Request: fold
Amino acid sequence: MYHIIQTETLAPTITKLTVEAPLIARKRKAGNFVIVRPTPTGERIPLTIVDSDPDKGTIVIIVQAIGKTTHIITEMVEGEYLMDVVGPLGEPTPVSDFGTVVCIGGGVGTAVIYPIAKALKEAGNRVVSIIGARNRELVILEDEMAAVSDELIVTTDDGSHGKKGFVTDALQEVITGQGKPNAVYAIGPLPMMRAVANVTREPGIRTWVSLNPIMMDGTGMCGACRVTVGNEMKFACVDGPEFDAHEVNFDELIARNRTYAGPEQEAFSTWKNRTETTDCKHL
Amino acid sequence: MSGNGQQKKEAGDKAPDSKSQNKKAPKRQKVIALKPKERMKIPRHLPNEQDPMERITNFCEVSNGFDIDKAIAEANRCLECNDPVCMKACPVNVDIPAFIQLLYQGDYAGAIRKIRESNYLPAICGRVCPQENLCENSCIVGKKLEPLAIGKMERFLADYEARTGTFTPPPLAESKGQSVAVVGSGPGGLTVAAELAQMGYDVTIFEALHEAGGVLKYGIPEFRLPKQIVDEEVDRVKALGVKIETNVIIGRTLTIDELLGEMGFGAVYIGTGAGSPRFLNVPGENLSGVYSASELLTRVNLMKAYKFPEFDTPMQIGNKVVVLGGGDVAMDAVRTSKRLGPEQTLLLYRRSREEMPARIEEVHHAEEEGIEFHFLTSPVAIHGDENGWVKAIECQKMELGEPDEKGRRRPIPIEGSNFTIETDTVVVAIGQSPNPIIQQTTPGLETTQWGTIVVDADGATTRPGIYAGGDISRGGATVIQAVADGKRASRSIDTYLTKLREEAVSGSTKKHQRQE
Reply:
């Protein structure tokens, strides 16, 4: 059982949780993730470790409520426990001094890019960050990103905050206005990462993305997270989760991630209806 | 021996212990009243099994095993051989005639204790051991009739003990003041832990998943090995004082060197198994609806997808499932798929029935359950629809050529024999490779080209104090082989740690005591 010592709502559906996990906190590097199983009947899902404090023995995860499991986690409060947390998993982000690096976070992907931007800044890079969301409410970690970036650009689809448009528009402007950056890190929804890869492919800018396939054990045993990278089969849990964006077969991964869409929807509606009934009893 | 006052104990007392195995076997006292000729007239007893048509609608255990009457009646068939070959055929040399005699005499507690002297996991091995290739294959009765149902008697005794709550932990030796880390809580790790705990070592098992049991939990289906049985067996290991830390991945959360260094363990046993699924390397393998057997089985067994949505993890099975492979995992995958309710369930194997490595009993069960077997059929490509889902599998017919190095006839493709089978679900069950995490994170640990850890005849790896066994060193074997490797390694670890103790006493500066 893993004690949740702090929770914070970052946006209407996005929650930040600080969890006691001393062994993981001690080992964790930027880019690592954990597998979380919130309840005794719960699913195992992968979540990036956003931050860690080896002295306090805590890790930070940021979760967006989408399906049943993520709703259960985001509704947990301080003092409650996550049933299982295991890690740190995956290969750490390759961090070195490249020169100028653009870090792109889309939606809750900003939570994943934040520790990478921080590590790249600490490694001596000039960090230009672009974070995007559908609207103002869903923009997260703006201050934190500003603190680790030399320049921060915020975009929203509806223009309610920052520049109106997509992160790729902002990336294109950076490339046109400042010249080619030495590297790009992009993390967000798969279509966004695919779009970023398409922008940087032609000018030949080294680009990394962090993939989020279906995953169970996180140790290379289930094969659910297999992705095609450079025409080779890779397991995102042990070979990744970060890969060369120009080598990733995004279309295949987008299709694979829909594999359990039906049952996931079913589980979520059953769960949602149940909690609504419970709420009525309280009234 | 204690607690069986009213039972006759001559047979148990006079059975040879493991130390006397190498000497000429002392004459065994006969206890079964029937004359050998009369015993040979009794046909082998069959366990009660769930009807095939009923059992494909549930995940309850297929075999109900023996009741007391059948178990004792079966014990009457034993010829009480003076030099029992069944015992030699057992990888851990369980004293089979001795436990059968105790069973015959009604000393169930004595009988199960006798088994546990050699194998601490009888409820598991009584169910999943390939007895037909081991003890039962060598049974003298089997030369003329069907051999004794040794596995079913073992299972009866284990279940009887559990049902009556009569388990008492065996006595532990005085504490040696040294600790051992065991990596992986599968059959090998549990055995090493149980053996060393009884010798007086302080043992901690580290398990990567959230539950103990390893392949017994994530791999073998509920209908062959109920998870409650595994939990009970794990509890019996814990009853020896063994600690189990779940959610710890050695190689990630902690390393082997940390276990041996700052954490102060005197020795480490690696029993992490062969959990990494192999794929076919054919086009279309990453389409949605193509699963590894590991994914299917882990979802259904460990995560209980068969109870979805009561449990949150789903398994998406279509109308027609094609399973590829011919081993025990393929059999488990195809029978698990069948129970999830598709209209049709097929198994494709590239050789013929005779070469199938799966247990005969399980092939038989699968056939009873309506699995369609297609032999000499090998997949060459998987085709998908416009949404990236499987819609068909393209196959090629095979013929058998010369035997390979293992003596199995090699399948050779027949040119121009391609055909397609329409399907919306494909499960790849063509084998597993060793999990590489420990090998990658432990300097100096020699591995083979297949990724298995190199061990010597004592189960020692190329680094002092580190031992390994089971599938991580063999690549893919059986539960009982993992148990046998665990027993071998625990003897080696004892020898190693004893030497360290003696060196410490004689003034060596080496400190290997665990700092609590």
Remarks:
- Chain B touches chain A through 44 residues (CB under 8 Å).
- Residues 1-21, 509-516 of chain B have pLDDT under 50 and may be disordered.
- The longest helix of chain B spans residues 479-505.
- The CA atoms of residues 289 and 316 of chain B lie 8 Å apart.
